[in-house]
Specification:
It is built from nine helices and no strands. By secondary structure, the chain is an all-alpha fold. The protein has one domain. It is elongated.
Length: 229
């Protein structure tokens, strides 16, 4: 990190351009990998004489999974950008922003592995099904842990910002909601991971449920706010 004495006074908005670009690259990596895995799926279907309906199911599964992960990354970006706009602890935000972007950049390659193994198992052309099942389990677990970590860091940032001096009551309320919803999504991600792995639910259903949850407001910690008020 460049010392503040060199850069002078700055605000969280200085990082917004970098954040937009980084999340844009992450989303681009997701969509770039999509045609590759779709072409591999088509190739394997023809080689193993699968029907068009089976091919359609495989491709639809990939597209739904892409939509789900895209939605989750977009949700994380919106949280991150909102928190940086009025950042006060700039050094803390600089450090955590670098970690958020690093962790976020790991999602596309591991999700590619999820698609790779899930399609093999779905269309039954894996040479070693047991290894493919283990690869799917491990790669999917890593993706869920990465997403949970992203939401946890965002909740941590909002919590730290909430108790800084000079925050208005309205801003504190907003930060409390951001903390609660981000932490709720962190917990939900881990719960979905445990259920999906325990019951061997195939992709992209668990990820789709998590992606759809980003369209709704839910806060498992709302009751604590009511107790304080």
């Amino acid at each position: 990190m460049i010392p503040a004495r060199i850069t002078g006074h700055s605000t969280g908005e200085n990082w917004i351009g970098l954040i937009d670009a980084t999340y844009g690259i992450i989303l681009t990596l997701l969509v770039i990998e999509l045609p590759v895995i779709i072409l591999d799926t088509i190739k394997e279907c023809y080689q193993h004489s699968h029907s068009f309906s089976e091919l359609s199911i495989g491709v639809a599964s990939l597209l739904i999974g892409y939509f789900a992960v895209f939605t989750i990354i977009y949700d994380i970006w919106s949280y991150h950008k909102t928190l940086l706009r009025d950042a006060i602890q700039l050094r803390l935000f600089a450090i955590t922003t670098s970690w958020l972007m690093f962790i976020g950049s790991l999602v596309p390659p591991f999700y590619y592995l999820v698609n790779h193994f899930s399609v093999k198992l779905l269309l039954h052309y894996a040479d070693h099904p047991a290894l493919a099942e283990e690869g799917l389990l491990r790669s999917r677990t890593v993706v869920y842990i990465l997403i949970a970590l992203l939401y946890w860091i965002l909740a941590f940032l909002a919590r730290k910002e909430q108790f800084q001096r000079g925050q208005s009551t309205e801003k504190r309320t907003e930060l409390f909601r951001i903390t609660g919803t981000a932490m709720s999504k962190c917990i939900l991600t881990l719960v979905i991971m445990v259920i999906a792995n325990s019951w061997h639910i195939p992709p992209p259903t668990p990820t789709l449920l998590l992606g759809l949850s980003t369209y709704f407001y839910f806060n498992f910690f709302e009751f604590s706010r009511q107790n304080h008020t």
